[in-house]
Task: structure prediction
Amino acid sequence: MHEIDVWLDGKALSEAQLSTLKVELQQSFKLSLTQALLLVNGRSHRIKRSCTEKDASQLVRQFERWGIPLRVEPSDVLTDQQTVSEPSLKGSPAPPFTLARVGARIPTQAAMTESVKVSTDHLQLLD
Result:
């Protein structure tokens, strides 16, 4: 059985999607505002590591109901039954999602063309 990682690509989401996601994370997963804000900061986050296809599919469906796409890919942790050259998900029934090749560009994600802006307004100099 293949293990799957589930990723949230915040950079590909609109401000409205990020706002919706923040509320849904707090209500559905009982996250604090601080924890929810960490996940909606516009970066990619692995939200589930080494899960089964069934668990990944359930998570993808839940986030799709909120209008939030997730990315799934083979886990980077290999078990003793897996090898690097082992084909992923061949011979399995087609899941309701597809796996991108490692390093492949995600079609729904804009290419990074500008540098990340960091606010330093909150920093203070110590005497």
